[in-house]
Specification:
It contains 15 helices and 19 strands. The protein is an alpha+beta fold. The structure holds flavin-adenine dinucleotide.
Length: 461
């Protein structure tokens, strides 16, 4: 653990309207905690900013004093990239708020909000912005990396619904970036992560989403190969209103799962249909006919219900290790690899997900935003999770073995938000592929000294 120097600086405290926390303050351990309990970092100070002026003051203070700077949005990054040892942390968790303009179908979101905040506010107007599958995830980190969730096939990635950002740059200045203003910066923040500055406010498009038909279908583990073959073909031809991500799971010992399935290792698909129950029924008919599944769970519900359906299982404070890839196709060898390693699922919370990134995601060009792998079919993530620190090595080894076996069948890079903190520069380069050099140039323009480097870092050109 790093020794903390100069824990409190009176100068910065005086320029902030929000709190400046140091190691001896009450609430310090909660403030420095990140979602993944494998990560334990001891920053120097935490500036809990309440407005843009606070963010400017903290950025200027870090730069002028040569301090390492980190930016914490929702704190969900599996590599804990919101917090760093010995860093001044800009904590955005007090900057939460959502304003919906129903006439313009636009949603203004403060930089430290969570997706639960957004879903709650937009649902009242029958609108939604595509995001991820856990409502406690931060809007900041998820959006800046791309954003893959239940509405991806119909409405694209989160960044495909981003209209503008307000940002504080490394020199402390404030800018707005959109297609019409600072377009190079707007291109880069749509996938390039927190490399370019602190986003204090996001402006999103809202899409017509209200009641959906959502839930899982589960099959016995022995059916995995057939389910994957069926899923591969089915999802390629399914209407875009229907999203479905493949998953291995150990069935939680709780409602709504029937007792006979509790703690069984199974495979399944989590569906979300944005439309009427009758249309969902028709779209899902081949799924019912195939198999049939041991559990057929899709049912009508408000969109925020599926958005938060897994929050209770994936609470903050679990041990968490994941590895990812983009996937273009599922050849037989890859299917056999999934069969082998899925059967070795080590704990109740561990899983493997294949998130479709086709449909609307594919209709945006590979260099229209910094998110390069537009032509892949899935973002795959292998996730070892358990509450017990004693199982840390078990879940890590399972994840690594599984990933090693499947990586040769992948497209090369991985979704940047599914990388750990220590995967190295080559992995970041593989993730951005042909967009990397352009990102490095934009980084060179807006952050030439790499002040924002606690992230999947893009070195300034
Ligand atoms: C349980 C779980 C489920 C997930 N599910 C999905 C999913 O379905 N789809 C998906 O796409 N991703 C998913 N993710 C990945 C998620 O997108 C990333 O972990 C993301 O980094 C989380 O963002 P955050 O703001 O909560 O994290 P933080 O740890 O706070 O930040 C992550 C990174 O983003 C930067 N950052 C955050 N906010 C800002 C800001 N306002 N301005 C500038 N930089 C900022 C930070 O500096 C840091 O580098 C999931 C993660 C978890 C743990």
């Amino acid at each position: 653990m790093t020794v903390v120097k100069d824990p409190i600086s009176p100068d910065l405290a005086e320029s902030l309207r929000g709190e400046l926390l140091g190691p001896s303050d009450g609430g310090w351990d909660e403030a420095r905690a990140v979602y993944n309990a494998m990560i334990d970092r001891q920053p120097r100070q935490i500036a809990r900013c309440v407005d843009v002026a606070d963010v400017m003051a903290a950025v200027n203070f870090a730069r002028e004093n040569g301090l390492l700077l980190s930016v914490r949005g929702g704190g969900h990054n599996a590599g804990g990239l919101g917090i760093a040892d010995d860093a001044l942390v800009i904590d955005l968790s007090a900057m939460r708020g959502v304003r919906v303009d129903p006439a313009a179908r636009e949603v203004r979101v403060a930089g430290g909000s969570t997706w639960g905040d957004v879903d709650h506010a937009t649902h009242a107007f029958g609108l939604a912005t595509p995001s991820g599958i856990i409502s406690t995830t931060g809007v900041g980190g998820l959006t800046l990396g791309g954003g893959i969730g239940h509405l991806a096939r119909q409405f694209g990635l989160t960044i495909d619904n981003l209209l503008a950002v307000d940002m504080v740059l490394a020199d402390g200045s404030f800018v707005t970036a959109s297609e019409d203003e600072n377009a190079d910066l707007f291109w880069a923040v749509r996938g390039g992560g927190g490399n370019f500055g602190v986003v204090t406010s996001f402006l999103f498009r809202g899409n017509p989403v209200s009641e959906v038909v959502a839930g899982p279908t589960l099959w016995p583990l022995e059916a995995t190969a057939d389910v994957l073959r069926f899923y591969d073909e089915f999802i390629a031809n399914a209407p875009e209103e229907l999203n479905g991500f493949f998953a291995f799971l150990m069935v939680p010992p709780a409602d709504p799962f029937p007792e006979e399935l509790h703690m069984q290792k199974m495979c399944g698909v989590v569906w979300c249909y944005n439309g009427s129950p009758a249309d969902a029924d028709e779209a899902l008919a081949p799924v019912r006919d195939f198999g049939p599944p041991s559990l057929y769970g899709p049912q009508p519900m408000p969109f925020p219900a599926i958005q938060s359906a897994f929050d209770g299982l994936y609470t903050p404070g679990l041990q968490w290790y994941w590895k990812a890839d983009f996937v273009d196709e599922l050849p037989e060898e890859a299917i056999l690899g999934h069969v082998e390693h899925g059967a070795k699922l080590p704990t109740l919370h561990s899983t493997m997900h294949l998130y479709p990134i086709d449909g609307a995601v594919n209709r945006v060009g590979e260099d229209d935003t910094a998110f390069t792998y537009r032509n892949s079919r899935w973002a795959q993530v292998i996730v070892g999770v358990d509450p017990d620190p004693a199982n840390r090595d078990t879940i890590t080894e399972w994840t690594r073995d599984y990933w090693e076996a499947l990586h040769p069948h992948s497209a090369g890079g991985a979704y940047v938000n599914f990388l750990m903190h220590d995967e190295g520069e080559d992995r970041v380069k593989a993730t951005y592929g042909k967009n990397y050099d352009r990102l490095a140039k934009v980084k060179g323009r807006y952050d030439p000294d790499n002040l924002f480097r606690v992230n999947q870092n893009i070195a300034p050109a």
